[in-house]
Design a protein that fits this description.
Radius of gyration: 16 Å
Order of helices and strands: EHEHEEEEHHE
Number of strands: 7
Largest sheet: 3 strands, antiparallel
Helix content: 10-25%
Structural class: alpha+beta
Low-confidence stretches: none
Strand content: 15-25%
Shape: globular
Number of helices: 4
């Protein structure tokens, strides 16, 4: 039987960003990317460690600056049951890897689906 590669098709349901995404881990690559491409994001990140080995978390509300229980950069599309990510192009690695498996998507209540590679639209 051939090994079929699968890819994830996102439906923009927002569940990954709204449920339990109040503290997102960030790594050196994220911090370095934001320093050069999106310095405004750094206001919402707490990190420690020396350059090249920094780690931390993204956990502050963009609106209030206080701790939050959801991703601070997700927004609902007006009049639609869809969400968008205000920093999609520079999102942290943890978000780039979501979901890690069909079980992970199911566990978080994600409405997206895994489809054979090349079939995602």
């Amino acid at each position: 039987m051939a090994d079929m590669r699968m890819e994830f098709h996102c439906t923009a349901c927002g569940k990954c960003c709204l449920e339990g995404a109040g503290w997102l881990p960030v790594v050196e690559a994220d911090i370095a990317r934001w320093e050069t491409s999106a310095p405004h994001v750094l206001r919402y990140v707490a990190w420690e460690g020396e350059a090249g080995k920094r780690r931390g978390g993204l956990s502050r509300s963009v609106m209030t600056g206080r701790e939050t229980t959801r991703c601070p950069f997700v927004r609902k599309r007006r009049g639609r049951a869809e969400y968008y990510y205000r920093i999609y192009e520079v999102r942290p690695q943890v978000c780039r890897r979501y979901p890690t498996s069909p079980d992970h998507a199911l566990y978080t209540g994600c409405d997206g689906e895994f489809v054979p590679a090349g079939d995602a639209t």
